Structures are given as structure tokens and as C-alpha cells.
Amino acid sequence: MSWLSRLIGVPIDEARAPAGDPDRVQAVQRVLDELAPLLALDGGSFELVAIEGDQVALRAQGACAGCHAQATTLSEAVEARLRERCAWVRGVRSV
Questions:
Q1: Which residue among 42, 55, 61, 82 has the highest number of C-beta atoms inside a 10 angstrom radius?
Q2: Residue 48 pLDDT grade (very low, low, confident, very high; cuts 50, 70, 90)
Q3: Best CA proximity match to 81, nearest among 16, 42, 23, 36
């Protein structure tokens, strides 16, 4: 729970389920869970926001949010692994 949520007593954007086909959401989440320890080494992560057809929308969190290497990490690590494990993925974008 964020400090603001605690202050006003209302959860903000917590436990919001990603939009999209449940099977695809589960497949993408497995890949993100697999990559999480590596991203956490630098203090960051990516949260699944939505799957729209063959496109995956992710939100950078922690040190990944605002990092100058975010686009490189997203395309060369996260997207590459997603394409390898989920043949239907055609693109990944940050929201």
C-alpha cells in the first residue's frame, strides 16, 4: 500500500487485474515473474497493464520508471523473452 493510500485510507491502483485474454495474461505474467529477480537487482520491475490483441502494455516501476535505459531493457530483455516464450506477441510498449 502506498503512503498516499494509507494517508487517505483508499487503495490507489492496487490489485488491478491486467486487461486482456486470461490465458495470454497468465503466459505474460509467467515471463515477467521469471525476469523479476534480474530486474530487481537494479531496483526495478515491469507490471502487466493490458494485452490488446498481439500487443503487450507494461508499466515500469521502481528504478525502471524514468531510467534512461528503460527502452533498451524493455525491448532487448523483456520483449525479446516474451517473443521467445509467447509466439503471438508482436509488440511491447510502456504506458
A1: 82
A2: very high
A3: 36
Domain ranges of the chain: 18-94
Strands (E), the chain: 44-52, 55-62, 91-94
Q: Domain 18-94: which topology?
A: GMP Synthetase; Chain A, domain 3 (3.30.300)
Mean pLDDT of the chain: 84
Rg (CA), the chain: 14
The mean pLDDT of 69-85, rounded to a whole number, is 90
Q: Which three cell numbers stand for residue 21?
A: 485474454
Q: What is the identity of the amino acid at 73?
A: T
46, amino acid identity: F
